[in-house]
Amino acid sequence: MPAKLNDLLVSSAGFNLAKIDASAAPLSSGDKAADRNEVVQLSERINALQDVLFAERRRKVLVVLQGMDTSGKDGTVRRVFQRVNPLGMRVTSFKAPTATEREHDYLWRVQAQLPGAGEMVIFNRSHYEDVLITRVHGWIDDSEAKRRFRHINNFERLLTDTGTVILKFFLHISNAEQKRRIKERLQDGAKHWKFAPSDLSEREKWTDYMHAYEQVLSATSTETAPWHVVPADSKTHRDLVIARATVKALEDMKLQYPPPRPEYFKLKVD
């Protein structure tokens, strides 16, 4: 029997990522073709709900995708949101900060990309890079990291208090699966554009990244903006989890089209 979405939420301090099997597929039906078909149907449902969100123009949705290299952030965007009208959806990525961005606080560049009323925005990597790669490379110390955890929690509380629903997904792949995917990229010339030599040096810091993620997930999974840890060795299962969670969040918003305007019924078009 498939597990529930709530079983994938981070709900306690001292969260141990090693206890989560990245190769598990707890929400799968056991039939990969059926699961893929469900993802398509869920994407269509997201599109229908996003249409109401856009028409309503009151609330916003922010989807945060975090994960190690090759964990499938791009693939999630392609498949889970494949049927969504881009009129009300936007995807943004966060790379190394520019000179201008470094002259401001680390959340400054994030604020400019937040969803507006009626919009759904997907962060392919996010403000969490500023408590992950910065920590692993020693660019900030433990004291600064804890300070930033408080900043982020307060920042996200501001967003939820002002009408933004935040969905946060950590795409959890195993070390072995990442190795397989990197080797696949190196063996396929058409995929070399996805690879950078720094991917290998970052991979050497795997243990440090897992420790950093454990602390981030524990410190920033809140009641209003919890983290989902998504076993993602299976791409189909990854997509299924995120699609189901997104549909549930949108349905829970009880979205409604604006009420009809009686005077419009009387208008005549020549």
Provide structural commentary.
- With 270 residues, the chain is of the alpha/beta class.
- The protein has 11 helices and 5 strands.
- The chain has helices at residues 32-56, 73-80, 99-102, 108-111, 133-136, 142-161, 175-187, 198-203, 206-220, 235-252, 262-265, and strands spanning 60-67, 89-93, 120-124, 164-172, 227-231.
- Strands 2-3-1-4-5 form a 5-stranded parallel β-sheet, sandwiched between helices.
- Helix 1 runs parallel beside helix 10 and helix 2 crosses helix 10 (235-252).
- The longest helix has 25 residues, at 32-56.
- The radius of gyration is 20 Å and the shape is globular.
Write a brief caption for the model.
The protein has 11 helices and 5 strands; from the N terminus they run αβαβααβααβαααβαα. It is of the alpha/beta class.
Number of strands: 5
Largest sheet: 5 strands, parallel
Distance from N terminus to C terminus (CA atoms, Å) equals: 59 Å
As residue ranges, the low-confidence spans are none
Helical residues, percent: 40-55%
Number of helices: 11
Mean pLDDT over the full residue set: 94
Radius of gyration: 20 Å
C-alpha geometry: globular
With strands numbered from the N-terminus, the spatial order across the biggest sheet is 2-3-1-4-5
Tell me the structural class.
alpha/beta
Strand content: 5-15%
H/E series:
HEHEHHEHHEHHHEHH
